[in-house]
Amino acid sequence: MALLFRRESKYTLKSKPVVKIGGLHKWFGKLHVLKGIDLSLDEGEVIVICGVSGSGKSTLIRCINGLESIDEGKITVEGLSVNERERKILREVRKRVGIVFQSFNLFPHLTALENVTLAPKEVKKVKKGKAEKEAVVLLERVGIAEKANSYPISLSGGQKQRVAIARALAMNPKVMLFDEPTSALDPEMIKEVLDVMIDLACGGMTMIVVTHEMGFAVRVANRVMLLDEGTILESAPPEEFFRNPKQQRTKEFLSHVLEVNL
Amino acid sequence: MALGGVLGFFIGLMRASKNKLLNLLSLCYVETFRNSPLLIQLFLIYYGLPILFNTDVPPQTTATIAITLYTAGYMAEVFKSAINGIAKGQWEASYSLGLSYTQSLRRVILPQAFRIAIPPSVGVFVAVTKDSSLASIIGFMELTRMAAVVRSQTFTTFDVLGVTALLYFIMCYSFSKLGSFLEKKLEVAEAR
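The joint structure predicted for all components is written out below.
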């Protein structure tokens, strides 16, 4: 795998925003979770979002595929408005956006292969044989083709998460969202999932990744952002973000994270 | 009783839905039929239907209707809690893949909910099987009624009642066995 090199697309970005967020506000009851987020994600770009828990990271990416409603502001995915609560448009958005959850959320009553083929069969009406062929390719790509017929219960955390990534990829998404994909994993399994994600990024996938894996950020991110109390406090290319952050909060955050990572 | 299961399933879907009207309607249904005795429901239908439709309703029809409605009240709650018992993440994962509400329900939620629903369903079926003896009161020839007839003809009280009890036991026990069989089968499918 091309782990040692920063992916090339970083220097040959096509400037066509896939995701555009403008003035996004979100409240949970009285709690003001997101306080005016502006963000534009170009094709092939990888953004890593970090921040302490409760800073609104998950809420932000859940807004992008409409899992959370938008209270104020606007989000578009390839020109489609996520604000539309009309189900048809929301489904079109979701077909273009893959998401990987912290808690995997695999379907326990289906095998790994069936988990991957479900959406293409149901949503895109792909024939069973074709869907299965494609699913096998995807499972090979995430390195667990041999587990195709296993049920999630017999998979390790890392394997589950890789199936979840394959499941999201099966819909051929334009952008992939990762909501702390390695936070629920044992340390020895984190790498196998990160490797898959790095491979994806190198392949030119547009990604927003919420993670505390700073090694991942350094390697593949175009921009790293610190979300703090509902605002984007700092946004910079990784070299700058890690070497000389402008905000005091970023320095504090980095010292915490790096301490933990050591 | 099987009809009650089917009706209960649909009312259960309404109970679990987010639509307020459907929810309220189904809640009214459940509370009505769960909170009054089966015996009273039997009487109400037995005497009420002829008045409403001005025809005679045979005891069998009455019993079928009453037991269906009564079972449905309980089964609706069984299905509702089974559906609500599925982790929210399953809905989210399903929606995120672009599946609609109906597709999510059919492909992701219900297959899991059915398994959860088996043990409480067995409970309901066992209870209703035994409660069906109440239908003898309106003259429906069910097991208890039959036993009473045989008893009055043969004067063998304890033998007949004993056999009757045994027959009820066999019916109810089969439900339990069928339930645990289905549960095991579905579990094996998952754990393979």
